[in-house]
Specification:
The protein is an alpha/beta fold and about 220 residues long. It has helices at about 1-5, 10-30, 30-40, 50-60, 65-75, 75-80, 95-100, 115-125, 150-160, 170-185, 210-220, and strands at about 80, 90, 105-110, 130, 165, 190-195. The protein has two domains: about 1-75, Helicase, Ruva Protein, domain 3; about 80-220, 3-Layer(aba) Sandwich (Dna Topoisomerase Vi A Subunit, Chain: A, domain 2), CATH 3.40.1360.10.
Length: about 220
């Protein structure tokens, strides 16, 4: 561990503090308890202290509730998969949105991640379909080879889509991805729009309020 912290130039005082924390954690909690803390701490936005509180909360619950939680977690990758059409999270081959024939079948909103669907649906200003890319183009990390660009292009051709809404987050990577899609789809001669710039630069659609996001959808251009 010493080599690790030295490699990343961690100040000696911080190194001692972290070392003390991990040693104290090892002494204070049983191995199974600590292992669960480590699992929670590895999740996004969950630090060690938050993880401890979560594990303690679970420990205080009755056995039936814990058993149900564990069973649900165990079946996460069994009962859920990606929709074969739009790549939203689904319990079947097609998600509920793709199966809903009442929605506008000629408009597709292209988003980065499934959680963006929840944010847009809350606005009640959009009634079309979605296409989840699975991320954005990140210069120096990936050229988009792992994203669903080819599937989007094939889908537009097959389903005779009339409008594609590019709903990437207003970030450098989001803008680069939107520009790439616009160029990719230009030969298809369809209407391509982007959300209006009511969203703050560098923001995240997932956390935008309903009014701002709804206005951005209505005023897209």
């Amino acid at each position: 561990m010493s080599n690790f912290f030295t490699l990343f130039f961690v100040p000696p005082s911080l190194f001692l503090l972290l070392t003390s924390y991990f040693l104290l954690l090892k002494i204070m909690f049983p191995k199974s308890f600590k292992k669960l803390i480590d699992h929670f701490a590895s999740l996004p936005s969950i630090g060690p202290k938050h993880a401890e509180r979560l594990v303690l909360y679970l420990f205080k619950q009755d056995k039936d509730k814990i058993a149900d939680f564990a069973e649900t977690l165990k079946n996460l990758k069994v009962n859920l998969s990606f929709c074969k059409k739009c790549f939203n999270i689904s319990e079947r081959d097609l998600c509920e949105i793709c199966l809903d024939k009442k929605r506008d079948q000629k408009t597709v909103c292209v988003i980065e991640e499934p959680l963006d669907i929840i944010a847009i649906e809350r606005t009640k200003k959009y009634a079309g379909l979605y296409h989840v890319l699975g991320g954005v183009i990140e210069p120096g990390k990936n050229g988009g080879s792992n994203l669903k660009f080819g599937e989007l292009e094939n889908r537009i051709k097959k389903e005779n889509i009339g409008e594609v809404i590019l709903a990437m987050n207003p970030t450098t990577e989001g803008d680069a991805t939107a520009l790439y899609i616009a160029r990719l789809l230009k030969p298809l001669e369809i209407k391509i729009t982007r959300l209006a710039r009511g969203l703050s630069t560098g923001g995240d659609i997932e956390y935008a309020d309903e009014i701002t996001l709804g206005s951005a959808i209505i005023n897209r251009k």
